[in-house]
Amino acid sequence: MQEYNLAIAFDWEYDQDFIRLLEFIAHRHNLSTYVIWPYNLNETIQLIQNEDIKFDYLLDRASDTSQDFIKLQDLLKTKKVPILDRWEKLKWAANKATMHRVLSSEGIPVPQTIILSPYSVNDNINISELKLKDVGIPFIIKPAVTSGGGAGVIKKAETVEDIIKARQEFPNASYLVQERVIPLEKDEKRFWFRGFYSCGLIKAVWWNDLIHVYDIITDEDIERYKLDPLFEIVGRMAQTCGVNFFSTEIALNMKGEFMVIDYINEVCDMRLKSKFIDGVPDDLVRQISEQIVSYVQCAL
Q1: Residue 288 domain flag
Q2: Residue 213 lies in a domain
Q3: C-alpha span between 24 and 39 (Å, rounded)
Q4: pLDDT above 80 for 175
Q5: N or C end: fewer C-beta atoms under 10 angstroms in the chain?
Q6: Calpha distance 5→300 (Å, rounded)
Q7: Burial of 249 per CB tally in 10 Å (0-12, 13-18, 19+)
Q8: Does 94 fall in a domain?
Q9: Cα(134)–Cα(119) distance, integer angstroms
């Protein structure tokens, strides 16, 4: 039987640089790796079933978008192989309606929100103009569960009719009607951030929500603009949701309040900034990779 310390499953071509970096760092720490793509998934499952191959740990970046990889997770669970992260946990955390309730119950700052049941369950929900005043006009409409990339999100809705129309796009999803948060703009900076949590490591970067470009937060930035609460909020979110690797969006509004905008992005985009204008700063990707490998090594 061949044994590998870390199996890495992925299905997105743009993950390749991240996977190579993970493998490089793992090998430097004397950990063996095995990469599972869609093309060798069935072969790998057969090898595991025949006990020709064994994994000590699985990093899964595929089961959220490729259902076939769930079979791999289910099989490895029968073998008592730890998984980062289990698809059931990610599916739960990816639901924005669920996370809104969970985070707000823990006192984590989230926008004013009305949660609506799926259109397929109730196609005649009565929302009064009075309720809309609670979230403000214009407001955001977003499905609780999507395929990512802002699908189904309406950023400047104004009427009940907008809500009725929006709910029909993803009829089986709950919807959030949400306060539109306007970030502070100062010193040629837009105070919108992306926080990352990876196996105990908490990081945050400037992230312009309009052009999707990242910039490093310096120590001077943290001190000058009093950004320490950013890191505290990400840590509290990790404790609350139990996901080991995620990103989130947090804005500092014009009242000086930090607000979690987009809750748990359960599979982080790890494209490198050196190759993509909207990629994550290379050094941050390296730090995240180092942390994941160290976490796996400690678990073995």
Answers
A1: no
A2: yes
A3: 22
A4: yes
A5: N
A6: 8
A7: middle
A8: yes
A9: 22
